[in-house]
Amino acid sequence: MTQPSLRRMFSGVSSALAADALDHLDLRNQCLDPDVMPLAPSHTLLGPAFCLRAEPARDTRPAMPYQGLLRAMEHVRGDEIVVFATGRSDAAGVWGELITAACQARRVAGALTDGLIRDAAQLARGPFPIFSRGTVPYDSKGRLDVVAHGDPVTLGSVTIRPGDVLIGDLDGVTVVPAEVAGRVAELVAGKRAAEDAFRAAAAESGSLTDAFQRYGVL
């Protein structure tokens, strides 16, 4: 699925709306841990996942650092979101200003990690969306190595496969499996219409119960 088609299907869709649609499909465990949040309030994610996996480095003074990361980043496409799985490591910042600059030049759609980032002040001022658990000054060299890319990864209790759709905002990140993306978009459209009718009914009557009974959303 291309980024333009994703933009059309999920334009303005929040992580909460996507989660509601997935609940309807009985996919009830598709949101990342609540501490994975945007670096800046304006940062939002929408795009297919490109997955990397890092592990603790075996060599603290590597002669040729970053080799796994460099190999992986040669394969990311311009419409994808880099998903950097670390096992919730606090060892180092796995994302920073320089890798962001390279990704912006390639029109990568954003970055997401269950680990930490650095260069936060510069990155928060920019438009490139980044989601993480927090920040730390440490570099990944000799601390974390990328050992795989292009395979499914698990962040917390959620498995993310290459091509799955990520929707992120201030509420968090919802992972939409690629095979149900079209159905989720349809369900979201119906939920939006019901919510619009609910708002109008609630504004007219002032009754939450009446609006819920009429439209079944809350």
TrEMBL record:
This protein's cofactor list reads: a divalent metal cation
Among InterPro entries, the record links this protein to:
RraA/RraA-like, RraA/RraA-like_sf
Any Pfam family hit: RraA-like
Q: Which reaction does it catalyse?
A: oxaloacetate + H(+) = pyruvate + CO2; 4-hydroxy-4-methyl-2-oxoglutarate = 2 pyruvate
UniProt EC number? 4.1.1.112, 4.1.3.17
Per the entry, what this protein does is: Catalyzes the aldol cleavage of 4-hydroxy-4-methyl-2-oxoglutarate (HMG) into 2 molecules of pyruvate. Also contains a secondary oxaloacetate (OAA) decarboxylase activity due to the common pyruvate enolate transition state formed following C-C bond cleavage in the retro-aldol and decarboxylation reactions.
Q: How does it assemble?
A: Homotrimer.
Query: Which family does the record claim for this protein?
Result: Belongs to the class II aldolase/RraA-like family.
Protein's UniProt name: Putative 4-hydroxy-4-methyl-2-oxoglutarate aldolase
